[in-house]
Amino acid sequence: MTTIDELRTIHDFTCDIARKSGEYLRNDQIRRRSVALGTREKLNAVDLVTDADTTVEKLIHDAVAQRFPEHDFIGEESYSAGEEKRFLLKDSPTWIVDPIDGTVNMVHMFPMTAISIGFCINSIPTVGVVFAPFLGGQGTLYSAIYHPEGGAWMSEFGSDGPRTPLPLVSPPPPLPTDAPKGCLFFGEWGKDRRDSPQSNLTKKSTNFINMATELGGRGGKGGMVHGLRSLGSSTMDMVYIASGQGDIMFEAGCWEWDVCAGIAILLQTGGIVVDSNPPDGLAPDAPIPMANIGGRRYLAIRGCSTNEQGQSPRVQQERLVREVWRRTERLNYERPI
Ligand code: IPD
């Protein structure tokens, strides 16, 4: 049993290490004006790793190992470089880290780049810290402790402002009555670029067109969302949904390190995350289970308040999940075994 005081200690330690990693990345961007960025391809030409990814992961790993030697650690770069491809999360206290989420963005100096550090207990993301070093004056920090006495916050460095509680509007408004109509929808194109009628890329493009099309269009699948956004960072997508700056995140193909920290923040702000494919055999009125963190398919809905019809947040969120499932094709991202 981890106490709230222990979680606060872990949270503060994580914020500190995320900021130090962010300083390294900011300096790295300055250095690259004179030195070429060491960039290599992993699975294909859009799956990139830079020297900064490996350096930052080592920095975070070493700090965690020194302070919490009994904890387990899963990091994107060490996992990608290793042979073991099973989902490694157990119920023991475990850190799940993406040193740079949005590596392609960083290579192009697009600011949706984040250091993403999650900490799980009993396989539940419990502390989440996301530092976006190129957003705001000297970076923006999002963090949460998922606990009844916890909280979720945003701090902009380089301004003297206090840390802001999340979601940004509190209490968050109900979901739009006709949602997904009126929602802001975040979806990622991802790295699977294979070309066939049944490929994930083809299905994702169909899904996005369905969500954008007027109601009644595309055989009843039109969703008339207010807009579609694709940021190139699943971490930042999740954080914006948690902050209430978007309503729906639909992403498949990413990994536990891309979402773990963001899920802790989302849960603390009242959001939910489920499988982006409807689970087999789920009855139309059965409660929808939380996504498997290692399942590579995520559909997140922001927190909301009871609406004028008296529907609880959970009822509105589950209704919207089913409306999204109805309009989207199942994606095929199995975990390598
Ligand atoms: C990627 C980003 C992207 C998502 C990919 C991820 P990375 O993470 O989160 O939005 O579509 O699936 O792999 O490689 O930049 O850490």
Question: Can you summarize this structure?
Answer:
Its cofactor is Mg(2+). The protein is of the alpha+beta class and 337 residues long. The protein has helices spanning 4-31, 51-67, 76-81, 103-107, 200-212, 217-220, 234-243, 256-268, 313-327; strands spanning 39-41, 48-50, 72-75, 94-101, 114-121, 124-132, 140-145, 151-156, 164-165, 184-187, 227-229, 248-252, 272-274, 297-301.
CATH T-level topology of the largest domain: Fructose-1,6-Bisphosphatase, Chain A, domain 1
The second-level CATH architecture of the largest domain is 2-Layer Sandwich
**Order of strands in the sheet with most strands:** 3-4-5-6-7-8-9
Work out the number of β strands: 14
Largest sheet: 7 strands, mixed
CATH class category label of the largest domain = Alpha Beta
Count of discrete alpha- or pi-helical segments spanning 4 or more residues? 9
User: Secondary-structure element order, as H and E?
Assistant: HEEHEHEHEEEEEEHHEHEHEEH
Structurally, how many domains make up the residues? 2
Helix-and-strand structural type: alpha+beta
Describe this structure as you would to a colleague.
- It is an enzyme of class 3 (hydrolase).
- Its EC number is 3.1.3.25.
- It catalyses: a myo-inositol phosphate + H2O = myo-inositol + phosphate.
- Mg(2+) binds at residues 76, 98, 100-101, 258.
- With 337 residues, the chain is α+β, with helices and mostly antiparallel strands.
- It is built from nine helices and 14 strands.
- The model has no long low-confidence stretch (mean pLDDT 93).
- The protein folds into two domains: 4-167, 2-Layer Sandwich (Fructose-1,6-Bisphosphatase, Chain A, domain 1); 184-327, D-Maltodextrin-Binding Protein, domain 2, CATH 3.40.190.80.
- Helix content is 33%, strand content 20%.
- Bound molecules: D-MYO-inositol-1-phosphate.
- Residues 76, 98, 101-104, 188, 190-191, 232-234, 253-254, 258 line the site of D-MYO-inositol-1-phosphate (IPD).
